[in-house]
Give the backbone structure.
Amino acid sequence: MSEVQTFFKTQVAAKLGLTLSDEQLGQYETYFNWLVEWNEKMNLTAITDEQGVYVKHFYDSMTLLSVSRFQRSGTLLDVGAGAGFPSLPVHIAAPELQVTVLDSLNKRIGFLNELGSALGVKSFKAVHGRAEDFAKPDLWRAQYDQVTARAVARLNVLLELCLPYVKTGGHFFAMKGPDADNEVSEAKKALDVLGGRVVEVVKTALPFEEGERNIIVVEKIKATPKQYPRKAGTPAKSPL
């Protein structure tokens, strides 16, 4: 086990209250190796050094598991997951979750499905598509206990893309940088229109002074009006 992996295991236990098995640590190592290898063929991440991946991707993703309202079982949808963050590192640590990843780039979906098989994770699938297109009543609308997104868009846009998928009483977790409070302020209209309320903003700091992170926790308090989300591209061009 490398020094970075040992530090990762120690920090996860001390800061997040998680004890990782040797098997799980091996899965993270496989994930890292696959990420570096595939990144030579397609653009998955600008971060490829071991410390950067373990801290800025794996550990950062797993801070979700320290949020009191985050459930380690049930259904989780990850919108715009890119290279699998945050859902896949979370799924390794909490294998009882039923995880679905939705991303608009088919190459990334191919990578994630092959990676999921290599990791041996169960209850994991990656699907190609846009968030605006799957939130229909006969598809995935209001089907998920929890939804998350990391580094996809500002909160007022994310709410329109993600809240339609959350069951009433469920939660949306928006993973953000240091500007989270401003994003919450500018999203008041979107929250009111789409049926959500911010119940908590969880502030964390990454190891090695790698920066501040915030998790905005949104509870779904009523059904999202059927006209949302609007057609593809509209939420980003004309945010609520």
